[in-house]
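To the structural biology subgroup,

Please find below the input and predicted structure for histidine kinase, which we are adding to the shared reference set this quarter. The sequence is reproduced verbatim from the submission form. If anyone notices a discrepancy with their own records, reply to this email rather than editing the shared folder directly, so we keep one authoritative version.
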Amino acid sequence: MLHVFLTNQRAELIERCRAKVAKRASPEATADEMDHGVPFFLDQLIKTLKVEQTDKPMESRKVSGASGGGKPALSELSEVAAQHGRELLRRGFTVEQVVHDYGDLCQSITDLAFEVDEPVEVDEFRTLNRCLDNAIAMAVTEFNYQRDFVMADKHIQTLNVQIGFFTHELRNLLNTATLALFAIKDGNLSLSGATGSVLNRSLVGMGSLIDRSLTDVRLIAGLPVRNALFALSDFIGEIKLSAALEAKVKECVLTVSAVDLRLALDADRDLLLSAVGNLLQNAFKFTHRGTEVILNAYSVGDRILIDVEDHGDGLPPGEAETMFEPFTQGGKDKSGMGLGLSIARRGVEANDGILSVRNKPDEQGCVFTIDLPRHAMPLN
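Predicted structure (tokenized):
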């Protein structure tokens, strides 16, 4: 009888499964993966086969569940399989490993039975398949349920952090603007004075923060890119108008090169405006006071390049690989949310472009470059 064979060969079957696990996973993972699946399943399978040899064979369904697919019914085996799925997820395994565990046992049973010439009745083999089917279904179901729960929890935590950063930054800017406005009103001060500059700086900061956040929401939501053909010179001119105000607030010089009137972009203008705007904000943030921030747009072959160059301290070794990650802030100035460069890269990539950064040779500062497909304005 199969249950006698399984009982006598229990240790050998577990060892064979352990060897199979070791071949596809690290040796350290073998014990963790094995201790929460195969031994317990074997015990439930043996118990099921024993019950089916009694005068009440249908009682075995309480142990291992019924056949026929669909939603797995509660049973002793399903509870063990669900525990196995939970444990493997908690220990960092994949759903493939959950399925492989039970497949390993099935193969080990059939191989060993063949080697020792152990006959397996048709009904016994059907019971084995039913138990495997139910165990895999419940383990995978529980694994996916727990994984979805964990992912949702991580998403909520990330969202809470993001909202927290946004509200904290917005509150600080609003508070500064409010205090500056009260000071101007109470002291009958001029808007062109130092206090007026504080108010202006706070309002510009709030506008930039809101624009950045709206772009981020649009990218995360996966809204379709709204492509349109537009002149590169008009695009750079629009950016120059808004950036000039921020350059004045930051007490630095903005230099914008002349742009070939024939060059054009076929892209989502709003996403690119946000991307270049974020790069300029980053440049104004880190360039030394009184130095120059340069915006240069030109063509090389079939590409259009937009450079944003600052005169700051440059990039420390290795920072170029991490600075585009969300909530990453380099340099001494830790103001802001650390999202601008991440949003800029996603906006550029959504338009089939590439965003890169490099240190300037023999100079302080760095250059961010947006690389986009080149187009031309139609002839009149």
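Summary notes: The chain has two domains: 2-154, 226-376. The mean pLDDT is 77.

Regards,
Lab coordination
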